[in-house]
Design brief:
The chain is an all-beta fold. 1% of the residues lie in helices and 58% in strands. It has 1 helix and 22 strands. It has one helix spanning 2-5, and strands at residues 19-26, 32-39, 46-53, 57-62, 67-70, 75-78, 81-84, 87-94, 100-109, 134-151, 154-169, 176-183, 186-196, 199-208, 211-214, 222-227, 237-244, 247-254, 260-265, 271-289, 292-294, 302-307. The strands form 2 sheets. An 11-stranded antiparallel sheet has the order 4-3-2-1-11-10-9-8-7-6-5, with no helix packed on it. The longest helix has 4 residues, at 2-5. The chain starts with a helix and ends in a 7-residue tail after the last strand.
């Protein structure tokens, strides 16, 4: 029960053939993200850090022994690189791959956690109590992120909005769509997937002015989704409508030319699957909360990730 109520913690310490990854996203003018995690696939166990922005992505592998976790502040440490709800302190160098180097020191403030209940201990709702192949957790829907990012000697001051989530289990769903977008006092996270026997599951959480509105399957919301194949180069957009009562979100996301490849867990937590994530997707949407239309036109960079055959989602 403690693991179900606190999914942000390290859960697979004593398990094999599983994965766990924490995702730290930063928006505004230069969107970028880090993923810190572990793969406990028998025979290829390791810790990893992935970095992604609009121009590139890199994977850094470490021995599993380099990973440690503290429940205090959700502190993840991988060979001197630190990730927590207080911020990140990273210094990475890839000598074999163009001598790529990234350093980042950012402090977080005003963390906005998912408002849990016994019925919904996480964004998975009551499904959190089931042994699904992949579970999801929203650690912070929005927070202030301030510091510096130095990539290959190019230093940037970061004054951005942050977002933290987590995935854990045995493998990602074979088919899914995921997005995160934020603007002013609004943050939106949503995903649609077929985790078991082609039965569709979805969640959508809207954080607006300190309140959270849950338009997820288990919360009796409805979803309409239309799109072409994920890999259809002629049609890269997707439209989703989440609705519950007089609150609804209609969103169209169109990918840019800046999508980057990330490694994702395949069978038994092995990090061999490639997925495409776009940190600069365009976002057009209409948000109505309890009958009142909310302006969400300030979204400039939407994170959008897809995998599998999208025609299964229609």
């Amino acid at each position: 029960m403690s693991k179900i109520l606190h999914p942000q913690n390290y859960l697979c310490a004593h398990k094999k053939n599983c994965f766990e990854g924490w995702y730290f996203r930063h928006t505004e003018e230069f969107p970028f993200s880090f993923i810190a995690g572990v793969s406990k696939h028998k025979g290829t166990e390791h810790a990893f850090i992935q970095y992604i922005d609009r121009q590139c992505s890199r994977v850094f592998r470490f021995p599993l022994s380099a990973f440690s976790f503290s429940k205090k502040d959700m502190s993840i440490k991988i060979e001197g690189n630190i990730f927590s709800i207080k911020g990140i302190d990273v210094s990475l160098f890839d000598e074999k791959n163009d001598k790529f180097a990234v350093k980042c020191q950012i402090k977080y403030d005003s963390i906005t956690p998912f408002k849990k209940s016994l019925y919904a201990p996480s964004i998975m709702g009551p499904f959190a109590f089931l042994p699904l192949p992949c579970c999801h957790a929203l650690v912070s829907m929005s927070h202030c992120a301030n510091g510096t990012l130095d990539k290959n000697g190019e230093k940037r001051d970061i004054n951005a909005k942050g977002y933290i989530e987590k995935d854990y289990g045995r493998h990602f769903p074979p088919n899914y769509v995921w997005l995160h977008a934020s603007a002013k006092d609004t943050s939106i996270a949503a995903a649609v997937a077929y985790p078991v026997a082609k039965r569709r599951g979805f969640f959508c959480l809207i954080s607006h002015n300190g309140k959270q509105h849950n338009l997820s399957l288990y919360n009796f919301a409805r979803l309409k989704l239309t799109a072409q194949s994920l890999w259809d180069k002629e049609n890269k957009d997707i439209n989703m409508i989440f609705k519950k009562g007089d609150t609804h979100l209609s969103v169209t996301v169109k990918t840019s030319d800046h999508g980057q490849k990330l490694l994702a867990p395949d069978k038994h937590g092995e990090m061999t699957r490639e997925v495409c994530e776009d940190l600069s997707a365009s976002f057009n949407g209409k948000l109505v909360i309890e009958g009142e239309e909310i302006d969400i036109f300030g979204i400039s960079h939407c994170a959008f990730e897809t995998a599998g055959e999208l025609n299964l989602l229609s």
